[in-house]
Design a protein that fits this description.
Helix content: 25-40%
CATH superfamily: Sortase
CATH class: Mainly Beta
Strand order of the largest sheet: 1-2-3-4-7-8-6-5
Mean pLDDT: 81
Structural class: alpha+beta
CATH architecture: Beta Barrel
Largest sheet: 8 strands, mixed, barrel
Strand content: 15-25%
Number of strands: 8
Low-confidence stretches: 34-38
Number of helices: 5
Amino acid sequence: MKMGKGKKKKQNKLLYIVVIFMVACGGALAYFAYDYYLYLQDGLAAQENTDVVRHIFRDQMEDINQLIAIVPRVDNAEDAPDDVTQLLGISFETSPLDAARELTDNPDIVGYLFIEGTNVSNVIVQGPDNAYYLHRDMFGNRNVNGSIFMDYRNTPDFTDPNTILYGHNMNNGTMFHNIRYYLQQEFFEAHPHIKVITDDTIFVYEIFSAFTTHIEFNYIQVLFDYDDEFEELVAEISRRSVYNTGVTASGDDRILALSTCTNVNRNTRIVVVGRLAMEVAIND
């Protein structure tokens, strides 16, 4: 018995739809597989870049950790002893930042950031805006991991009242991935200091606040219109901390804020903020 023409056409149409659907699904799967492959490759490249520059600063990081151990906490960074670098023999005959700039052929490098015992250890770059290094590495190459970068409005010598550093919260462990753990007090207690190396200064910051926030809170404010405005910002940052760090900050301090995404909502951030507790000149 012959199949009716109408029924056969319906079956051919259904087969056609199934084939198109399978091709589309296969194409989409191939696209996402390739995109994930590129993501993994970018992560490997980011980690390799981090390891390269970390090697340049390794000796200086060890010296600074000793510096923190022998110098007592001071309430004002200006009160830190002037001769502590001589006690350790810290002297950069050639600035490690110059070595990093030469290696990367990138004059945008303004410092080196590290938190001992974490994966936060990388050069700091500063671009013409806050988008340039979102998806560029320290070599200027496109990379989904981006870089650790300073707000373009900040002065690159870390002398502003509020200096902001940004980095992606990458699940591969690079950039500011470890910042999320500061929402746990135990992690803070094990890693209470943020350290920065510039061409001529060592900065040590004591963390006084860790919190999550919607971007409506202007914690990235750099310019202040009246004398008490910065003090009000510091007080609000302190109030928002998810636990008591035992460290007090005021409007007389200079602060450093590390900002990263929560990966929960595109408009929420994890923020860790430290007060400048030690500032030591090098290469005088």
